[in-house]
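Input.
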Amino acid sequence: MAVISPIGLVGARSPILITWDGTGISASDIRYFKLEVYAWTGEEASRPADPIYTIDRQSGFVDVYPTADIAPLLENEFNHRISKLTQDTIVKNAPDAQLWVQVDYDIEYIDDPFVVNDTGSTDIFIATYGYGKFTEGANKNIQRPILQQYQRYAYEKDAFMMPIYLGKHGEGLDIIYGYRDRVIADGGTIEALSCCNLGLANIKVLNADGTSYQYAPTESDVYGTRVEDRVLLFPAGVANLSNWKDNNGYGGTAPYRTSYYDIQLLDGFNNVIESMRVYNECEPKYDPVSLYFVNRYGAWDNITFFKRSDIDLNLQKETYRSQIGSASASGYTWGNQARGVRSYNHQANHSMTINTGFVDESYSEVMEQLLMSEYVLMVYDRNTTQSGFGFDISQSQRAVNILTESLTLQKHINEKLINYTIQIEMANPENAML
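Output.
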């Protein structure tokens, strides 16, 4: 008997299914199906003593493969912090964006003439607040390193991070250190790690003009054992990447001076593991509107709407009719200024219509992810200014909701020039009502 459970990195906005394989018995032989769900942050080895939820099913077994979806039990455990949205240094992911998850199981069944308890624990896996697609099947293991779109258009004042999923500790992009530790544990020796073509060796920025600069991640960058250590955040926006380059004294063309740049993950033989391209867009007429959103991989993503934006005001209020006038010795009278119908609880709500400008056909995927996101922030009060070879990044964010519920995903064969128009609304009234 065995329990079938997820491995690797899985999205908790899709079902996370725990299934027991009871092949060889009858459904009527199952007496109970008990799962204890543990979820935690920090070190993988620091599992808490108590589960966050217990599932105890004692009847209604229709087959010998009892299954439970634990994804809804994890939803309230995530916290999408915004403190690392615009860093100009390489940092680890924010706590609570991912969770370690393990399930203890206890299934009791009759194997005549015995009563048997099948107990144990699943492998520890990582859950993120993302989702898989139907065609990817159940318990999809997210195996891509870059947890974002591979192509984007950025404003010169944009600041955002590129999340790099490092994989299972010692077996992913940090495998060279896991290999080293396993060799040493077996009594072997390592002369030099530099000769090994394993894992992530360099992060390279390659500009449109052919100039480049690169960084060699250290062991402390990639070999951490906390769950937040398994995602590395690299400065990727035009503004914060310019700062990172300038602060480290790298040569090559600055991001704000090139038409595009590729951020490449390289192995020891300079093979590209994965790459993201950022187009540096100049917008002389409109004020671009940038949105941060939690994408299908559970990571913060960014999209900038470059073209025309319109703001609409919608006022909501309640009314009641009050008594006017008063009686006196001369009869009943009222003034012309009397307020008969009165209004109260006024709420001023702003919504916006925004346009991407012309984008590539591949943007259909990121637009779908934006509309699917449950947490979206809009940049406002942006006062980022250029300072020397870098930028003084100054901006605030406020929560918005996506009003658009239907969108034609455009193709170049049908639309020669692709522009997406959506509507958003501020998540809170302008007059700060609770």
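The helical segments are 71-74, 175-185, 219-222, 238-248, 363-372.
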